[in-house]
Amino acid sequence: MRYYDKLIFELSKPGRKGWSLKDSFCGGAAAPAAPVPSGLCRQTPLGLPEVSEVDVVRHYTNLSQMNFGVDTGFYPLGSCTMKYNPKINEEISTLFDDIHPLQPESTVGGVKEVYEKMDSCLAAITGMKHFTFLPCAGAHGELTGLMLMKEYHISRGDTARTKVIVPDSAHGTNPASAAVCGFEIIVVKSGANGLVDVESLKPLLGPDIAGIMMTNPNTLGLFEREIREIAALVHGCGGLLYYDGANMNPLLGMVRPGDMGFDIMHLNLHKTFSTPHGGGGPGSGPVGVAEALVPLLGKPHVSGFHGNAAVILKAYAYILTLGREHISMAGKLATLNANYIKESLKDVYKLPIPTVCKHEFVFDGLLNDGAREGVAGATTLDVAKRLLDFGFHAPTIYFPLLFHQALMIEPTETESKEILDEFIEVMRKIAAEAAEDPDILHQAPHDTPIGRPDETAAARNPILQYR
Amino acid sequence: MSKIVEGLLYSESHEWVKVDGDVAIIGVSDFAQEEMGDITYVDMPEEGDEVAAGEEFGALESVKASSELYSPVSGKVVAVNSAVEDSPELINEDPYTNWIIKVKMSDSSELNSLLTAAAYGQKL
Amino acid sequence: MAGLSYFPHTGEDIRLMLERIGVKSLDDLYSDVPADFIFKGEYDLPEAMSEQQVRDYFHSLASRNVPLKVFAGQGAYDHYTPSVIPYITSRSEFLTAYTPYQCEISQGTLRYIFEYQSMICRLTGMDVSNASMYDGPTAAAEAVRMCLASTRKRSKVLVSDGLLPHVLETVRSYARYSGENVEIVPDVAAAVDADTAGVIVPGIDRFGIVRDLAPAVEAAHAAGALVVEYCDPSTLAVIKSPAEWGADIAVGDGQSLGIPLAYGGPYVGFMACKSEFMRKLPGRIVGQTADAKGRRCFVLTLQAREQHIRREKATSNICSNQSLMALWVTVYLSLMGPDGLRKVNALCSEGAHYLYDSLLATGRFAPAVEGPFIKEFVLKPLVDPAKLQQALLDAGFFGALLTPEGYVSFCVTEKRTREEVDAMVKVIREAAL
Questions:
Q1: ipTM of the complex
Q2: Which residue in C319, C324, C339, C358 has the most chain A C-beta atoms within 10 A of its own C-beta, making it the best mutation to test that interface?
Q3: Does residue B103 fall inside a structural domain?
Q4: What is the pLDDT of residues A245-261, one digit of tens each?
Q5: Range of C301's domain?
Q6: C143 near A CB under 8 A
Q7: CB-CB under 8 Å, B89 with A459
Q8: A136 and C293 in contact by Cβ < 8 A?
Q9: How many helices (H) and strands (E) does chain B have?
């Protein structure tokens, strides 16, 4: 990657243009005199750049070359399921570009079929009854699911359920979504085995509990084995179970959340179903519900029209490519890859919970961080930054919050043994470097377009737009 | 070893109180600023707001963390330190000079449940 | 072995890997899952398709959508998309990246978001923009939350009923479940009071009319409430910006900046505000800084507002947004520049007024709501609106959307032609309605 320092504004030169439009709508004479009274018209200059088409293409091509994507290399970012994004999905995703979202059903037969078929495919995969496709991301799905949870209790005249239980290992979006939905959040602790502690859960249950949000496998990549008892307890107190589908990948084609007792769930189509993450969206977070909640499914209207339709198309193409023949291999191979890395590195990185994992697992930093008199040890941040020098994306770091030096690795099923072996070798080399001279890690990355930025300065004196 | 100033009272959540008549001057301890690292923002109440002992009145922010501030006493906020609002690094530089808020106490007996410098030192 | 081109494992690979792990089979990796949770049946899914089969199938689906010339808006506008945009946004380095957590290898994403924020600030006149929201309606819903968080001790947000229906519906849904007190009113200036935290008003209303926001802004500010303007960013090239009206927060949908209709998504919501409300903004924000060698670079900043740090105390739960669509908009605005964007509006306005006059001339409509408009307008139909819309559909046009008042709404963008307008008007003139 090469450092490129321009901003599009700096390429601007008055009089240059990058657009090509017809001269007038009706042809001939000029447009009618200003139809908007001057009192309603803009007075301040627009301040947009004036650049040629070539300037634009070169600029953004140069910017792209400072970026790392799944197509660049291995991207083991925990809880993000950075699997390969198939190109056929991209190809077909533009086929519905010209359809207006308010067109009558009679004119959108193809679109309707996609939504209907996706609904039945996702129902088959998850054991839910039906899905809504309005949510545009995972957190948006969580919010929608919680709205449905609330609607369910309201529909039964049960308005005293104001609290939602969230495990301490949960994704940060879980408590945030519950708060946006007006719930009070109760945290349930994990036990030493990394699983929700059933004994800690019991005293929290009561007539004020709307439900619990869980991800299974959880953020440590561990299957919540006691889910049957948890489901019985929560249902017993009148609450519902919400399944955060961010970690669905290892269960794809193996285990259905509906069978575990979950009533509501979301899926991240941009994780489990291979649609690209786009540098932070667009995603899609369809929400599925069990039979009892189906009549309520249309109640929350959480986005403008029909959700991110083009993303749904891509995910459908992926499901058709997997088909019933291959569906279970995705989850199995993702689990195989994660366990392979874990077992290959646990002698140099601290593995707090040494059981079989699912699609991801968490190390708690280095076993030997090289700390000695006058020399600070290498941290998880340092390991992450050093990985960038070797052409790998870093794992998720400092999450979950259960460990101080969390390093959360999720390889996904689309990585070959050779890639994993390379990664393992590099991780071992980094561990050896740390033991010998942690400063190599402190100074990393060395071979990226920029070094570590001053994030404190960025937050203390925010510069948030070009002036 | 973080610094503890004699003559101040401390809360278990690492705020300090300097008593000035019926006004409590409140800041955070050296331990708290060390734990946070480079402080990038101090979220503060407004003058005139009511605060209650043990309840949140603001937060310290760093690049990767946020830590709530809990009022050691109840009462009305009579002053906020705009210097630390503008330059949060002042708290890193000297957490004991750079107070955060002043509260006119409604119940000074609440001070009795706070820790002395020695007791706070034991806790750390 | 694995049978799919996305699975690189050979049988030998799997055997060696299982050996390293110390288990005998792939199924053994699920030994921690209680056996009766393992799905035993056959998944009710279609048979796997080859790539060519997938391609053919989607083309057959596409042929079941009726191609129509779009003369409708109501929140989704059929503007022209320059060919450069999909070319840039489909570059793998942008498309297949995650949220830019590792800034050293994400400067591409971070820079375009910074440019996006800058352009949104310039269009709206606001000081700070976030990195994007899901769409305009959710941005409006988040603005409700932001008003309440920014003005403590006030409990109510007034929302103008002039906003587009899909915006109102989304705002209403969010409020229903969050417990926020939202009132939808015809005249916010008349309804604002000391308990009002904020008001949300449209720059252009659902009838397409450019509104004079001065009375609403004056009344709201006099009462100590914030003003949120919901705007169509394309039109901000020509009409007063939120800052010029005195708004505190600007929201809207970036779809009108060259994003295809695509049956409603992905689009991109934007949200910008005056600097004093910066810390209440939801979502990602990119800021400028430098590395140790003094090189200008960009990072996600002010993250202590966000869910991954603040959890239930975050300003919002938003995490992923619509980053790639923010890039779409950024490339669009770079290409169009000030003159191109003004030209888009001029062409829309010329076409829309031409259609408006032509429709009135058919004798089948009467004027409905008076006021200046740019690309969208409503008329009172003097014929059965359902039959009217069907006649248009039969002839390959989508227009005459019915409003709750019984008006019909039309929209003309620069993509339409005079010939298309004439052809549609001819259908209306000649149809048996």
A1: 0.97
A2: C319
A3: yes
A4: 999 999 999 999 999 99
A5: 84-331
A6: no
A7: no
A8: no
A9: 4, 9
